């Protein structure tokens, strides 16, 4: 007897439930592994093991006639879930007393939630109260009692706060999380010679739910022990270590250029005389993708984005290069120079690794 569509759907639902049950079992086993890691003070991530798991899924996919890409995606999702759950397991031996200066700001709140979920003891120093975490009224006392001091204030305020924190001669690990380091560079370098000071840059916003596979940059300011301790605190992220002087050169492209490109995109649309609803009715896939990114930019913190453009000394050079690039496109189209346009496209393809 031929199975009807509804029966097939019920069969698929039964299989889905079994898949979810097996996923839950896998996560439970991963949590047990996480407890062992916590008790033995082992790092969350084991990249070589993760690659073996992905390889195993891809290999089995061939046997079952499934897509290798789908198998790899599933494996990565399962690994992500496992590491995320393991990251929530308290590590009493690793627990630190933390003071987060600017803890009521958006990024400050994210840091509070993240480190509290890792079992650290959080205090906030800020201009307003916080109903979830205790607030320290005396900055000096808070700094001297903390084992880790994190500065999460606007870029332009960071140098002043850093100087004050360093003046208390604390033995705590100290780092800021600002997006531009130049205004604080000399103070950070001075601090790195006399204390455990480094500089951290989480390459994501406060809406991020998980640190797993997110990028975090740690800048060496002269204290190698500070870099090592900060790396341990952000266990689970993709850590890149760099010299402090290199940070803003990189960020001029990674942040400044990408922000400016998206701001120029929506500013051009705003000047077009065409409403967004009119354009969206005829939107291409590329347009939709660009709008999504630009919408995220325009919805974000205008003051932060201004400081990223204004305080990074390498930004003007990058923006001038952006203008030159736009003019190259303009000239190639206006002068019917197909070869120049094609050359630019091909060079771009090569830059991103070819096909």
UniProtKB/TrEMBL annotation:
The keyword Oxidoreductase applies. Residues 96-355 form the Prephenate/arogenate dehydrogenase domain. The keyword Oxidoreductase applies. PANTHER family: PREPHENATE DEHYDROGENASE, PREPHENATE DEHYDROGENASE [NADP(+)]. Residues 1-90 form the Chorismate mutase domain. This is Prephenate dehydrogenase. One of its GO terms (biological process) is chorismate metabolic process. Keywords: Oxidoreductase. PROSITE patterns: CHORISMATE_MUT_2 (PS51168), PDH_ADH (PS51176). Pfam families: CM_2, PDH_C, PDH_N. InterPro entries: 6-PGluconate_DH-like_C_sf, Chorismate_II_sf, CM_dom_sf, CM_II_prokaryot, NAD(P)-bd_dom_sf, PDH_C, PDH_N, Preph/Arog_dehydrog. GO terms for molecular function: chorismate mutase activity; NAD+ binding; prephenate dehydrogenase (NAD+) activity; prephenate dehydrogenase (NADP+) activity.
